Each structure stands twice: as C-alpha cells, then as structure tokens.
Amino acid sequence: LLKYGSNLPLLASFQTAGDLAVVGGVVFSTGGIESPLSFLYSLVIIATAVLLPRAASFLTASVASISYGLLIDLEYYNVISPVYFFLKSRPTYEGGYVFYLIFVNIMSFYAVAYLSSLLSHRLRLVKEQLALTSSNFYELQAFHQNVVQNMGNGLLTADLDGRVTSMNPAAESITGVSLADGLNQYCHHLLPIPQFSEFFEKKRFSFLPHYIEGECRRKDGKTIFIRIRMSRLMDNQNQDQMKGFICVFEDLTEIRAMEGKIAQSEQLAALGRFSAGLAHEIRNPLASLSGSIQ
C-alpha cells in the first residue's frame, strides 16, 4: 500500500478501520463478554495516535466504544452467540454487570486516546523543532564553511605543538603548500618568520591575541611580506581549555611595494619642489643684474 499509495493519511484511516473490524472479530471469537482481549482496542487507538492527528484518536476511541458496546449488548439480548473456548462462567449476566463492563472499557478507550494523542502530539512538535534546529545548524555550518573557504585571508588552525590541523584555499595559495602537504607540518615552517618561530619555541601563549609581521621565504624561493594574527582555539566541550591556535594571515607584499612606490614618488615630488625653489632663488638675482646692466 505504501508503495502504490500517495495519500498516506487515507491509507492509515483504512488500516485503522480494518484493525477495529479485526479486533471486534477477535473479541467475538474469544467469548464476547468474557473475552480477555478487549484491550486490543487500546492498541488500535495507540497506533492511530501515532499515524494520524489527535482528532482521529478520539474518533477511533468512539468507534471502538460503539463496536464493543454493540457487541456486548447484542450478546446480552441473545441476538448473537459468540464463540466460547471454555464453558461460560454463568448462563446469564445481570444488566448492572454488563453496563459496568461497557462503561469501564469505554472510559479506558478514551483515556488511552487522550494520553496517546497527547504524547504523540508532543513528539511531533519535538520532531519538528529538532528538524528546524538541525536545518538551521547545517545551514549555519555550510555558511561558515563557505566563508572560510572563500575568504581572501589565509586561515589555518594548529594544535598546541604548532602542527597544522586545517587550512583554507587562501592559506594554500599564500604559503605555496597544498593542504595534503601542509597537514601535521609545523605552521612556523610553512611561514618561516623569526618572530613566529620564537613564539612557539618560548611558548608565549599568554600573549594572545598576538600580531606578527615579517618577511618569509616560501618553498618556491619567493619572498613575501606577511602579517599574522594569532588567537586561541578553545575546546568545544570545555570552553575554558585551549586546544590550539587560529592563525589568520594576509600577504602584504603588493601593499608594501605600493607603499615604496608612493614614498619614492613623494621623494621625487619633494626634490622637484626643491629644484623649483632653487631655480626661483637663482633667477631673482640674475634678473636684477640683467636690469642693472641694461
């Protein structure tokens, strides 16, 4: 049915109706009034609470009450004669006993419907909230992963010994080392800056966050100017315990070259202003001499 049916609530409704009919037949076949299997109605109600909305549980309890009450009444008035596996305990039943039996079972049906529907409703709410929380968590995780993978600055994490545990693509590009080759390597070997190596050698972990600038030579022989910002990487289970370092760094080589060009331009401009002033100072006396000669 689940394979070929597209309307699952309708299939569940048909299943509930079939279960009620089967349970009624079982109660009839096992003694009617004396049947010990009337509790099977409660199992059908619980299954309905799991499969269908809360209102369906009370509807099933009502149908079970009508089915059971009708079966007992018909037997009491000798309209039907159930199948008995054992001899009847009494030839006839008093009306008060029959009413009491029907009343107790009906109350139990509705009590089971109320409790099972309440628990099932709360379970659905918890599942929806959990699904929403999981969706938000995965979206946030994907967002953070996207930010880390596409940020322009290099980012690497290291353990307390300084061994690299992760790198983003920008870090691979700046260091010239791939992730596969960089993992478990000392981060101050990937970025060989004297202050960076000194930080790990002297274990100056209490000075975090810490800034380091300097030139480093990559493995391909290219020299670049790097600025590094180091901070603590805390343990997820214990936020008071540090388990490593976060290193965010950027290549300032082009900026330094631009700053050098700007400084050179300023020097040339100052020289030009000095030359213009000097020429002006020389031209004034020459103009006076030229006028006197004329």
Topology of this structure?
Blueprint: H1 8-29, H2 40-51, H3 54-76, H4 95-150, E1 154-159, E2 164-167, H5 169-175, H6 179-182, H7 187-190, H8 194-201, E3 210-217, E4 223-234, E5 242-251, H9 253-293
Antiparallel strand pairs: 1-2, 1-5, 3-4, 4-5
Helix pairs in contact: 1-2, 1-3, 2-3, 2-4, 3-4
Description:
Helix content is 60%, strand content 14%. It is an alpha+beta fold and 294 residues long. Strands 2-1-5-4-3 form a five-stranded antiparallel β-sheet, with helices on both faces. A hairpin with a 4-residue loop joins β1 (154-159) and β2 (164-167). The longest helix has 56 residues, at 95-150. The radius of gyration is 43 Å and the shape is rod-shaped. 19% of the residues are buried. The mean pLDDT is 82.
Characteristic key phrases:
alpha+beta, five-stranded antiparallel sheet, rod-shaped
Give a short summary of the structure.
The protein is of the alpha+beta class and 294 residues long.
The succession of helices and strands, N to C, reads HHHHEEHHHHEEEH
Q: Could you tell me the strand content as a percent range?
A: 5-15%
The total count of helices amounts to 9
What proportion of the residues is helical, as a percent range? 55-70%
General shape: rod-shaped
User: Uncertain runs with pLDDT below 50, 5 residues or more?
Assistant: none
Radius of gyration: 43 Å
- What average pLDDT do the residues reach? 82
* Strand arrangement, major sheet: 2-1-5-4-3
Distance between the first and last residues' Cα: 122 Å
Structural class: alpha+beta
Largest sheet: 5 strands, antiparallel
The number of E-state strands comes to 5
